[in-house]
Design brief:
A three-stranded antiparallel sheet has the order 1-2-3. It has one domain. 26% of the residues lie in helices and 28% in strands. With 65 residues, the chain is an alpha+beta fold. The protein is built from two helices and three strands, in the order αβββα.
Length: 65
């Protein structure tokens, strides 16, 4: 029985995060985020943690990006 047939909702992503260093010393870096769906290879990029969380909330509710 597949996950869809059993009603199980399951999603997996590979999360990457990295800090982009500023050109000027002494300034804070900017964090960037990406998710990759290991089944399809599709990647999603985010410039803020809030955008990443909004995407995940929509996935949980079954909405499309």
């Amino acid at each position: 029985m597949s996950d869809e047939q059993s009603g199980l909702r399951y999603q997996a992503y590979l999360l990457r995060l990295w800090e982009e260093r500023p050109a000027s010393p002494g300034r804070p870096g900017i964090w960037r985020f990406s998710l990759e769906d290991p089944r399809t290879g599709q990647r999603y990029g985010f410039t803020t943690l809030e955008a990443l969380m909004d995407f995940l909330r929509k996935q949980i509710r079954g909405e499309r990006r």
